[in-house]
C-alpha cells in the first residue's frame, strides 16, 4: 500500500492538494508554507465531494498550499482543531490559525479569503 509523502514537496506552494496523514505532517506543512488552507473532509460527505474541485482549483491557482485531512483516518487531528462537522476549512497564515469555516463555501469566497493573507 503506497502512502503519499506530499509534505516533502518543498517550500513553494503545491499545485495539488497535499493529503495529510497525521499531526506532525500537518505541522510541517504549516511551518514550511506561508498560507495553508486545510480541508477537513470525509469520503462519505456530499458537501465535501462538492468542495473537492474547488479546493483543487485553489491549490492550482492561488498562492496558498491546500492540505486535505480525512477526519475518519485522522480523528485525533480533527479533534485537536475542534472539527465537529465536515467540511471544515482551517486557514493558517505564518504558522498561525487565522480562520475557520464550516460547511460548503463558494470558490470566490474562499479565493478572497486566501488573497487576504497572501497579498
From TrEMBL:
Swiss-Prot/TrEMBL site (Contributes to redox potential value) positions: 46-47
InterPro entries tied to this protein: Thioredoxin, Thioredoxin-like_sf, Thioredoxin_CS, Thioredoxin_domain
Cysteine pairs bridged by disulfides in the record: 45-48
Entry annotation: catalytic residues: 45 (nucleophile), 48 (nucleophile)
Molecular function terms, GO-annotated: protein-disulfide reductase activity
Site residues by UniProt (Deprotonates C-terminal active site Cys): 39
Record-annotated Thioredoxin domain positions: 5-119
Keyword Transport (UniProt): yes
Gene Ontology CC: cytoplasm
UniProt KW keywords: Disulfide bond, Electron transport, Redox-active center, Transport
Keyword Disulfide bond: yes
NCBIfam families: thioredoxin (TIGR01068)
Record's protein name: Thioredoxin
Annotated gene: trxA
